[in-house]
Amino acid sequence: MKDCARIYVPPTPHPVALDQVDAWLESPSLVLLAESDSHWDSLRAGLLAGHITGPLVHDARVAALCQQHGVAELWTADRDFGRFPGLKARNPLVA
Known about the structure:
single chain; two-stranded parallel ribbon; 3 helices
């Protein structure tokens, strides 16, 4: 198996990472996105339209969730999200 590049070396210790997620979950402005009854139809359409296979299926799932919940712009450094029409992907790390 090929080694994946590590973004954070050393990785954040589990207690610190878990405490951060707990803090986000306590935010009154947080909205968790979940699959609706029409999720599969939306995801299936996106998979077919973009000829999506393999690891990109997870990205398609995220894109479908965003679209179902009215997210117009996704901030991400992952360029693969540009493959999904109807969802603008913006890299917040570049000007």
